[in-house]
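Q: My collaborator sent me two sequences in one message, no labels, and asked for predicted structures for both. Can we handle them in order? The first one she listed is below.
A: Yes, handling them in the order given. First sequence, followed by its structure tokens:
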Amino acid sequence: MSKMKILHTIGGGEFGGAEQHILELLEILSRHAVDPVVVCFYNSTFAKELRKRNIRVIVLDTYGRFDFRLVKGLTRVFQEEKPDLIHSHGVKANFFCRLAVRSLPRIPIVTTIHSVLRYDYPNPLAYFLASRMELWTRRWNDHYIAISNSIRQSLESDGVTAENITLIHHGIPIEEFKTNEDMRDIRRSLELPEDAFVIGTVSRLVAVKGLTDLMQAFILLAADNPHIHWLVIGDGPEKEALQNMANSAGVNGRIHFAGFRQDVPRCLQAMDLFVSPSYSEGLGLSLLEAMAAKKPVVSTMVGGISDFLVDYLNGIVIPTKNPEEIKQNILILMENEDLRMKLAEAGYRTVKEEYTLTHMAMKTKELYRQLIRTHVK
């Protein structure tokens, strides 16, 4: 079969779940009849990671943050590259790509919806503008990939017809979450005590992730459990507020802000328990990664997490915005090693059976072929 030329577009100013998803997807698809090109608007970490993997990247970073000249810039790229299909990610890329293709010979556009907009934009004005940008340009979009059932339902409630939506869960590179490195060495490198009980989080430090609730729970736990520590992987605007809470409670020495890390699978091995107190998730990728690393998980049942998490089968479910419940369930697992092992093994099986990268990539490739065939006719 001939190779399909697929052009992905994304802002790329951050390095979050969507960027990681594209990297992992394209590494597989480039070996399976796909010629990938990525266009992003910032020459930052994401662009560097693409180059490391020999994935061709075009950076359009000569424009302002919201510059309508981007339409012409993208139009020029599309004319030069002549892709078989355009795959966009994120409000800004969706908006400008859809405007750019209007003047070109018909190229199918598919958009992956990674999250629910109202939680990405807590500021009402920002949410209004982002939602209008998305809704106003949907007439020029051909198809949507929803990464969870909740996102699919959200699209349908916004008026997108069911036949224009395909559910494709994100996949996990499960083999990367095994390590032969001694956990004591990993903890030492992260300045964690060898004998501590370590709870962990991996997320952007933003309000919607509910980390202030976990901080309140940790402060309560720390009073009676001097061996408990918290490893915080990630960065963001909430970091200062979290540090201030820790300082005020006198627990700052037991909370370890490790910042953005590129060795998340290794860091997960330093944890005894993974906690996700989030208020909204597109799918809950960090939770799946923790399960792939055979770590027991405690999580709110929000967004796509309900697609895979079953209370007391492969994890423990907690309500949102309830520090006391977070505390109690951490205690339950801290005191019951057998339950931790049972949940960890069941979580690993869930990922291995249903959430692999190969499964995700092959479903995506087949969708590309269907959409290209439809537009050739």
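Q: And the one she listed second?
A: Here it is, processed independently of the first:
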Amino acid sequence: MKIAVISDIHSNLLALEAVLRDIEAREIDQIYCAGDLVGYGPRPNEVIELLHQREIPTLMGNYDDAIGNMRFICGCDYKNEEAIKLGEQSILWTKEQTTEANKKWLRELPQRIEFTAAGIRFLIVHGSPRQLNEYLFENTPLEHFNKLLIENNCDVLICGHTHLPYYKSTAHGHIINVGSAGKPKHGNPNALYALVDVTDGILNVNFTETPYNYEETAKEIEEFGLPQEFAQIVRTGQ
């Protein structure tokens, strides 16, 4: 069983298209999306519609919840007043641009996907099984990871939300954060996703970076009137 998991696309259509082309070139059994389709980027409707058309099982992220349900905030952990103001601009612009049909689709997305492959129980969420916007960072205490695995009766917990990829093995299972396809923070602008291979009961995890024309996305962000800071993140991956 080979699966690909993408997350945190954030309205970056070119990154999503590049990732899907890369996945299609491999022998993948199933693709999943762990949420946050929209926000920050210039193409919310096109990203939603592409995932919908491809019938890719997709979760609700905290940003999808905010736009689909017309909330004032996205539940992000902003560090200062400037970040809060930028986040408000992103929410307002994205709500105005996203069609009513696509908002309806976002608010009907599930908050978890569960399946079993080769006897291994998988759970995919956006933030954590407890909350859409809970951050599970690599330095989260192992005790917390183990508690989540036990509480949710799973062997592998897959998440996104932090935009930082990692794989951890614990006493009670495995934690995989797949990073971000469209708004990466792992140190370079390439789109990122995770490949998970289960062979003979053994789990293998690889993070795949996919180059794309990030400069075009950055220019669109600026041309569409979104903050220049969002374009800088796309250009630098930081």
